[in-house]
Amino acid sequence: MEALAHIPMGEDQFEEWFLAKVENRNMPVEDMLNALCELRRAGMAEQTNGWAELMEDALIEQGCPDDGVKVLRLRAEWSHGNIGFRDLCLKKLSSIFRNDPVRKKFVTNLGFDRGVTLSECFRRLATLQALKPGLLCVDKTWGVGAIRKVDAFYERVTIDFTRKMGHEMSFAYAGEALQLVDDDHLLARKYRDAVALASLAETEAAELVRIALRSYGPLTVARLQELLSDGIIKPDGWKTFWETARKALKADPLVLIPSKRSEPITLLAKAKAYDAAWFGQLATERTAEGVFALLDDLADNMKPDGLDADGLRIIGERLAFLMKGFGDKDMGIRVQVVVLARQWGVAADYVNWQQEAGQLVDPALFMGAAQVITTRRLDALLQLLVAYDSARLYETITACIPLMTMNVLNACVQFMLDHEQDGACAAVFKELVGMRKAGVEVLFWLARRPERLESWGLGTVGDLAFQVLPALEKSYAGERLRAANQLGELVQQREWLEAAAHSMNEVQRTSFIRSLYVAMGKVPVDTQAMIARMVRVYPELAEILISKRDAAAEAAAKGKFTSWRSYRQRQKLLEKIVNEDIPKNSRDIGVARSYGDLRENFEYKTAKEQQGILMRRSAELEQDLNTVHGTDFANCPTVVAGMGTSVTIEMADGSRQLFHILGEWDQDTETGIISCSSRMGKMLSGHAAGEEIVVPADQGDVPCRIISVSALPENIVSWGKGA
Question: Which residue, among 380, 366, 275, 280, has the nearest Cα to 337 in the 3D structure?
Answer without folding.
Answer: 380
